[in-house]
Amino acid sequence: MVYSLSYRRPARVVSSRDSLSGEEKQKSINESVNSGSSGMSHGIPEALSFDRIIAGGVCPPCTVRDFMNYLKYIELSAENLQFYLWFRDYCKRFDELPQGEKALAPEWFGENAEPENQTRPPRVSPETAAVFKGTDFANEPKVFETEKATNPFFTPPRTPNSDNKNDDGYSIDSLDQSMSSGGKVNHTQRASGAFQSAGLKWKPLSVQPYREEISRVISIYIADEGTRQLNLSSKERTTLLHALQNTTHPSAFKEVIATVEWSLRCQAHPNFIRWTICNGNRPRVIFARGLGVGGIVGGLLAAIIITLSSASRAWRVLSIIGFLIGISTLIAAWKGMCVVLHGMHHRHLRPWELFSSDDEPGGYDMKSDSYTSLDSQDSSNSWEDEPWVAKYEKRNLVRKVFDREVWIQEPALRQIQDTIFLQAILGAFTISVIIVGIFCAFPKGNYF
């Protein structure tokens, strides 16, 4: 049986996301950022906000790596965070390019929109039309004339009559030749298939910066058979491909990144924080529930025995100890917490953390890891065959209950757990006083 937590994984919400337009999602994100919250993050302190986690300003178990593991193993949507981190890094790298290279990939304003204060380019001259006569570009001379007028580095693509072509008529020199005898994925071929399935013809401008990287992104995150395909609507997918058909500017991802960021901020992040509050694994939480029920039963037995005896009513107050321990433990376990672990501010290691020394390289760090690199993203997020799954299944139940523990380093998370523990104590005390008061109201039994 694969490991699971007491916190039930919420189903991925699709209808609510699809009901919002790109502008509404972007507005919701902007309002969340400006207000200092993460959106739908009721009760989550600013110290554990989405922006703070992404910026690396938190300690385990609330780091980006922990967030990634949660999305991968619990919510099964790690591709959203992977794409978001890549896009942040891509924007930074694109912004650092020289102005001459940036000019090759103009900002995208939409299919029918034009940049403000920009005049429409003149019609194509007869000489230019003669150059494109008989090529695939003869029907769209305005696109290339615009590029030629605004971009001094623009080089027209080769015509289908040139040598060294692939099946689609594009120059093989500009394509990613990643298919090898080892069975590696041909990202360019998959990207071309994504354009064809969307009813678009791929006309890549190899002179644009990061064009090969964009092809890999389409292959991994956008194409139907992508290893980490995003959960996008057909409209979002087609709009993105149309934008990437013309430019590699980060603005081409505007609508898609709004959808991904909304999903991370408003759904995944609050769920992640609630899941992180649980300091014990499922066997330990069930064990804690059993102790809670046992404490309550013990308190009931003590109260009943003392009530039926000839002892004075004052002795019946002793039963409050069992009620207090049992009810508080049960309330905390209902929240996914073990009071014993909380007393030491400890938590159980997750199954994938238990065997990390065997399955992961040493010195694993988010900043040096390939979250933002496409070189290691050819693999999918499937984890059912990872070595830790079989190893964890072989562990007996008692060993799972008393698994390895680590100290919770994040102060804000400890404060949340302290609050929950205090609420459990107060709730248990109130209920215990009521129950003991009821037993004290009965007269002596004088049976023994």
From TrEMBL:
Alphabetically ordered keywords of this record: Membrane, Transmembrane, Transmembrane helix
TM segment ranges: 286-308, 315-334, 420-442
Record's compositionally biased regions (Polar residues): 29-40, 174-190
Region (Disordered): 16-40, 150-190
InterPro entries for the chain: RGS_sf, RGS_subdomain_2
Superkingdom of origin organism: Eukaryota
Name the record gives this protein: Regulator of G protein signaling superfamily
Lineage: Eukaryota, Fungi, Dikarya, Ascomycota, Pezizomycotina
